[in-house]
Specification:
Length: about 240
C-alpha cells in the first residue's frame, strides 16, 4: 500500500515513487476545478523519461521506445495505458491502441508559476509480497502534486509542452545504514527530508503543507532538488489530436 500511495505521474502514470517518498501529500484537495483553469492541449502527449529519447512522433504508441510514455488528454480527463506487471509481459499492442482500456483520472490543473497538477492516488491493499490481483481492494488515497512549467502553447492558448517534477518535502535526507528487515515506518521515514521547505511539516507518509502558499512555494523550490531526490524533471510534449497517426 505504501508503494501505491506514493505512486503518481503525469496523468497518474509517468513515474513511480517507492516507500518513503519525500513528496507533499494532502488528505483534502488544495485545488478545486474552475472554468478558467489553464488547459492542456487535447490529444496524445509523450512524456519523455530521457532528453535523448529517440521517439518517432508519427509512430503508433505500441511502437514507442521504453523512454517515452503515452498520455491522452480528453477534456479534463487524463488517460494512460495500464502499466506492465513487474517481471510480466509488456502491455499488449491492442490495449495500447484502445483508449477504452486505458486508466482515466480527473486531476485539477491550477495556474501559477509553476502550475500545480493535483492528482488523487489510487491505492491498492494488494501491494506487497504474495499479493495477487484477485485479493486487491482499490480505493482513493491522498492527493499528490506535480509542478508544471509550460514550454510552449497552442494557438488558442492551451499548453502544448511542459517541464514537470514532483512537489517534494525538501532536499533528500542523508543515507542511513541498511537494516535487515526494515519496518514500514522505517522505510517511510528513511526517505524523508530532515529539512522540510517552509510551511511544510513531516507526516507519517510524506509531508503536509500548512496552506496553499506553502504548497506553491514548495513546488517552485522542488525543481532544484528533483535530481538529488532521484527524480529529475521530465518533459512532456503534445504530438497529435488523435491516438492513431
Amino acid at each position: 500500500m505504501i508503494r501505491s500511495a506514493c505512486r503518481f505521474a503525469f496523468a497518474a502514470a509517468t513515474a513511480a515513487l517507492l516507500a518513503g517518498c519525500n513528496v507533499v501529500l494532502s488528505e483534502q484537495p488544495w485545488l478545486t476545478s474552475h472554468a478558467d483553469d489553464p488547459r492542456l492541449a487535447p490529444g496524445l502527449w509523450a512524456v519523455l523519461r530521457t532528453p535523448q529519447c529517440p521517439l518517432d512522433a508519427a509512430a503508433t504508441v505500441d511502437a514507442w521506445p521504453e523512454c517515452a510514455r503515452p498520455v491522452f488528454v480528453r477534456g479534463r480527463e487524463l488517460l494512460a495505458p495500464p502499466e506492465a506487471k513487474h517481471d510480466g509481459p509488456p502491455v499488449a499492442a491492442e490495449v495500447l491502441r484502445d483508449l477504452a482500456r486505458w486508466n482515466a483520472s480527473t486531476p485539477v490543473l491550477g495556474d501559477g508559476e509553476p502550475m500545480l497538477l493535483q492528482l488523487q492516488a489510487d491505492v491498492s491493499t494488494s501491494d506487497g509480497e504474495g499479493a495477487t490481483a484477485a485479493t486487491a481492494v482499490r480505493h482513493k488515497g491522498p492527493y499528490l502534486y506535480l509542478a508544471l512549467h509550460p514550454l510552449t502553447r497552442a494557438a488558442g492558448g492551451a499548453v502544448s509542452s511542459v517541464r514537470l517534477w514532483p512537489v517534494f518535502c525538501g532536499p533528500p535526507p542523508p543515507e542511513r545504514p541498511a537494516t535487515a528487515t526494515p519496518s514500514i515506518d522505517t522505510l517511510a521515514s528513511a526517505g524523508m527530508t530532515s529539512r522540510p521547505f517552509p510551511g511544510l511539516s513531516i507526516a507519517k507518509l510524506g509531508c503536509a503543507a500548512s496552506n496553499l502558499t506553502a504548497l506553491r512555494q514548495a513546488a517552485a523550490l522542488s525543481e532544484g532538488v528533483a535530481a538529488a531526490n532521484g527524480m529529475p524533471p521530465l518533459e512532456a510534449h503534445w504530438l497529435r489530436a488523435g491516438l492513431a497517426p
